[in-house]
Amino acid sequence: MDTIFAVSSGAPPAAIAVLRISGARAFAAVQQLAGNVPAPRHAVLRTLRDAAGEPLDQALVLCFPGPRSATGEDLAELHLHGGRAVVRAVEAALAELPELRAAEAGEFTRRALLHGRLDLSEAEGLGDLLMAETEAQRRAAIRSAGGAVRRHAEDWTNRLLGLAARIEAELDHGDEDDVAGADPLPALRTAAAALGSDIAAVAARPPVERLRDGLCVALGGPPNAGKSTLFNALAERDAAIVSPIAGTTRDRIEIPVVREGIAWLLIDTAGLAEETDDPIEAIGVARARDALAEADLLLWLGDDAPPLHPCALWVHARADVEGRAPAQADQLVVSVREGRGLDTLWRRMADAASELLPPPDLVALNARQRSWCNAAADALARASLLDDPLLFAEELRAARRALDAITGRAGVEDVLDALFGKFCIGK
Ligand SMILES: Nc1nc2c(ncn2[C@@H]2O[C@H](COP(=O)(O)OP(=O)(O)OP(=O)(O)O)[C@@H](O)[C@H]2O)c(=O)[nH]1
Question: Is 195 buried (19+), middle (13-18) or exposed (0-12) by CB count in 10 A?
């Protein structure tokens, strides 16, 4: 495997640029540039020189011998002056050395995963941490990066292994006459059902995507209800066209917004026209219906009660318009023109969000982790109904494979490229 290097701090110019080198030839590279290799985990000041002996920079040099390093390999850090030319010159000198090359996005973390320094759920948490923009996102990501998902998976795996050991013993010795005692299968089936429902309960928690990508809030209602006007007011910018002409909004428009410490994805939709001859408008209406159905939270601006939705707020928009029908008791009265009701609406949205987002003190799973949890829970549920110890053992093995996939111990090659492609170079 090549030895890789990259600037791991922010883009130059900056006061300091931290350049990391990881791999079998990391310390040879330090030796070449700095003249010698400092003692492990001791920061020393060295003049770095190119192959001709010309000084490149004065740098703080640190060496972390593997496997007790961030990547699990020999790892060196050069704390350079963060000017562009300095960084470029040191990178050029490193690139000249045999078996050294610039790192790809996420390659340091990928090596850490490869060498067991962290598991897949922790790497996913780290990816989310790098992208976190709100406090809630940061808190959830730091929990995953710190191993909370891994610890759940390990705890479940340990319980599973306990069951597996007992059923394997039964399979090996169950037909021997000298083994006294009752048939252990009923107790094992009960334990498998309990473990399956524990796993399913965690998988049923609100998904971390709502925190990470924003809680989807769709504005829906008939044409001319004031959706785009309210959308612009919530987004605090003129994102959607507003006009008195019914059917102005034809497609869904999405705007990410951070408010009340929560990331929201606001979605404006075409008005739900009863009938239309316009094929484009018909497509817009179909898309609007999909957006409303899929939204985590529906803001309904119709005068009729909202359509069936797990979480809807009913808004009486354009409240200042003369001759407007009075609001129903459970409607939120809003007039964008008069700036009325918007703060209350945000508050009600935040109240709804507290039900829809992962609770701050509990582990939340992403879609990949959820689907493996559900696969494990399903296998355990099936096992709990089986009378045949052989089939029971087979379902436990299926559950084990699913739990292993959560932490990246099995069958996850395809997700690695997708995950690490999102990381920055030098991470
Ligand atoms: N007086 C008053 N007029 C409003 C208010 N909100 C929207 N309007 C007007 O109502 C008309 C329709 O508003 P839009 O925001 O375009 O309505 P829409 O629901 O997005 O309409 P479609 O694109 O047809 O679905 C426009 O003329 C707006 O200026 C309000 O709070 N008060």
Answer: buried
Please indicate, yes or no, whether residues 160 and 272 belong to a single structural domain of this protein.
no
Q: Which of the listed residues 82, 103, 124 is the one where a domain comes to its end? A: 103
How many angstroms separate the Cα of 366 from the Cα of each of 121, 176, 373, 374? 9, 46, 10, 12
**Does residue 417 share a domain with residue 324?**
no
Domains: count for the chain: 3
Task: For residues 234 and 301, give the distance between their C-alpha atoms in angstroms, rounded to a whole number.
Answer: 14
The three-class DSSP label of residue 80 is strand
Look at residue 329 and tell me if it is in a domain.
yes
Residue nearest to atom 3 of ligand 1 (CA): 318
Are 181 and 151 part of one and the same domain? yes
Domain hosting 368: range is 135-207+364-421
247 and 382 housed in the same domain: no
Identify the residues whose C-beta falls under 6 Å from ligand 1: 223-229, 242-244, 246-249, 270-271, 317-318, 320-321, 335-337
* Whether residues 346 and 264 fall in one domain: yes
Task: Classify burial at 219, counting beta carbons within 10 Å of its beta carbon; exposed 0-12, middle 13-18, buried 19 or more.
Answer: buried
72: alpha, beta or left? (left if phi > 0; alpha if psi -120 to 50): left
Kindly report the pTM of this predicted structure. Answer: 0.74
Q: Is residue 161 part of a domain?
A: yes
Q: For each of the chain's 427 residues, which pLDDT tens digit applies?
A: 899 999 998 788 889 999 999 999 999 999 999 999 999 999 999 999 999 999 999 999 999 999 999 999 999 999 999 999 999 999 999 999 999 999 998 899 999 999 989 888 898 888 888 888 888 888 888 888 888 999 999 999 999 988 988 888 877 776 655 455 678 899 999 999 999 999 999 999 999 889 888 999 999 999 999 999 999 999 998 888 888 887 788 888 999 999 988 999 999 999 998 887 888 888 888 999 999 999 999 999 999 999 999 999 999 999 999 988 889 889 999 999 999 999 999 999 999 999 999 888 888 898 889 999 999 999 999 999 999 999 999 999 999 999 998 988 755 555 566 567 667 777 7
Candidate of 229, 251, 274 to mutate for ligand 1, largest count of ligand atoms within 8 Å of Cβ: 229
Q: What spacing in Å lies between the alpha carbon of 244 and ligand 1's midpoint?
A: 6
Tokens read off for 136: 């809630």
Kindly state whether residue 113 falls inside one of the protein's structural domains: no
Residue 324 maps to a domain: yes
Domain boundary among 103, 118, 148: 103
